[in-house]
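Homework-ish question, so no full write-ups if that breaks the rules, but can someone show me the predicted structure for this set?
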Amino acid sequence: MNGRLVVMGGGGFLGSHLCDHLLARGDEVVCVDDFSTGRRSNVAHLADHPGFALVEADVSVSIPVDGPVTGVFNLASPASPPDYLARPLETLAVGSEGSRRGLDLAHRHNARFIMASTSEVYGDPEVHPQSESYWGRVNPVGPRSVYDEAKRFSEALVMAHRRTLGTDVGIVRIFNTYGPRLRPDDGRVVSNFLLQGMQGEPLTVYGDGSQTRSLCYVDDEVRGLIALFDSDLTGPVNIGNPDEYTVLELAQTVVELLGSSSPIVHQPLPVDDPTRRRPDISLARSALGWEPTTELADGLARTAASLADDVGVAGPALSDDGRSAG
Ligand code: UDP
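A: Not a homework solution, just the prediction itself:
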């Protein structure tokens, strides 16, 4: 089914991959971004694509999209902790006003609205792995609350729109995702470790590194988002990779993969850093037939190549099909 889809935050890391996948299957895409944390270079290769349009706007102020709309994806928000901690008020604005404008746009066009929510709604969880029925443990006044509560508020908005106006909605809770186009200065763990390893600098493990994350490769993540859009599931549904690693294990894996001589150093743990995180993806498997397929080593190799390209250092050796050679 081909449609004309608005991707709010389409210039970001995840949003730009979503634009690629939607265009590849024959949809038209209107990318809306203010490039506050996204990058023009993420969508520059799409400029001449006949199905692609770019609207530069802050969605918390307006979404100036004319013409038909058959679907709206809301990926507009700073997403890495350093990005949202540097933009606390903007993050709250985009998660409230931005989400409401996106919902209103979808409702006006009778279009399906997909809300990109987050594993951060679970906060520092007492339940492990996290299934969608868990309500979470978020510090409402800590520094991370600007992101966590904005996303929780967005979920509430989405459900209120559905209940009061009948808007067709889906909520996806996205767990840690990595891949090409992560900005070198994004600050998330994968891009930090890969860059540090490639540049021969120490890998900065925050705290003792015993906290866990479960990392999903971006193509797998985007397949999940599109599967949710194509379904009539409201969710919320977890889309993430259940393979769980400690941050220290991840640092060791990166050093090995790169054949790097970088040491591992420890730095203070950020406030309210969740101690463990792993999605229960039973619902995605049963309702969407979705599961991730990319091996960590392959995904890391592709991400390293993209970062190396960005900063002009030598990346890891890759074979022709983009898989790690080793
Ligand atoms: N982290 C780290 N070193 C870094 C960046 C992050 O040890 O250079 C840790 C961070 O404290 C957290 C995990 O890696 O426990 C994932 O952090 P990230 O910022 O990627 O995302 P989060 O899951 O916290 O949103």
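Now go work out the reasoning yourself. Hint: The longest strand covers residues 112-118.
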